Write a sequence for this structure.
């Protein structure tokens, strides 16, 4: 992992691919209680034609700083980070809570982006009260429930254990604060103003952010395409990585065809 310092705080990210790629860079934001490791399959597969950057949000993974109370705070932080990385206009992808941050960033800083990718997310989130109570009472059990609900079908024990270990590493306060952020997020009033091309991906069997939330998101964002991925749940990028990656590659290639000047800006 690489480290960058912003306002005297160290933040970590993983980056692969040529910085001078003809296509814009792809920046990946993880979800609640997570870190950049959830994007392993995307970093490996998508970096042949572009720079791919997966960040640990503040207070998550190896990054310093504190978790934020709202998506807007993370959006401002991401602007400082991408400026420090000297990124020209890029494509921003967010999963779950990361999707709320991506929406907020696109709302505040549309000039910094050429496209938007939203996976397993929505205009709003529905956080079950029972799960939030379990999180307060038994964090270890809450982590196991999260992992069991995150996938559409049986996953290998090592996949489940990696997800559980990630949540445990970040700790109960991080996950609780992330869920508070999700519970308070609502882009209903302004999503219609997002004018960027947007690819929306969801797992057909997502039990955490059901497909209906992605459909509402697609209905709200004017220039959007919805792809519902079969045999996948909330962790669609891990469950169906080949299809997920093909959708992203096709979307980014389409961006370059529609806006050839974007290639020049990223050389």
């Amino acid at each position: 992992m690489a480290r960058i310092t912003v306002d005297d705080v160290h933040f970590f990210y993983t980056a692969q691919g040529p910085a001078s790629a003809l296509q814009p860079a792809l920046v990946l934001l993880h979800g609640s209680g997570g870190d950049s490791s959830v994007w392993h399959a995307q970093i490996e597969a998508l970096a042949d034609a572009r720079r791919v950057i997966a960040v640990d949000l503040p207070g998550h993974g190896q990054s310093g700083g504190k978790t934020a109370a709202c998506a807007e705070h993370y959006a401002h932080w991401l602007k400082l980070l991408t400026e420090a990385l000297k990124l020209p206009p890029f494509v921003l992808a967010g999963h779950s809570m990361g999707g709320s941050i991506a929406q907020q960033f696109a709302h505040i800083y549309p000039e910094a982006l050429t496209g938007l990718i939203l996976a397993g997310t929505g205009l709003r989130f529905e956080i079950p009260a029972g799960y939030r109570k379990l999180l307060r009472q038994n964090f270890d059990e809450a982590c196991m429930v999260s992992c069991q609900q995150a996938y559409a079908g049986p996953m290998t024990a090592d996949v489940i254990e990696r997800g559980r270990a990630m949540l445990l590493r970040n700790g109960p306060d991080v996950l609780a604060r992330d869920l508070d952020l999700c519970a308070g997020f609502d882009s209903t009033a302004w999503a219609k103003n997002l004018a960027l091309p947007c690819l929306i991906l969801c797992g057909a069997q997502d039990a955490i952010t059901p497909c209906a939330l992605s459909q509402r998101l697609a209905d709200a964002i004017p220039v959007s395409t919805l792809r519902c991925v079969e045999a996948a749940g909330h962790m669609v990028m891990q469950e169906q990585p080949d299809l997920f990656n093909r959708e992203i590659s096709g979307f980014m290639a389409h961006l370059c065809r529609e806006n050839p000047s974007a290639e020049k800006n990223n050389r």
Observations:
- The two ends are 24 Å apart (CA to CA).
- The chain is about 45% helix and 15% strand.
- The beta strands are 2-6, 9-16, 26-29, 52-55, 90-95, 113-119, 198-203, 224-229.
- The mean pLDDT is 94.
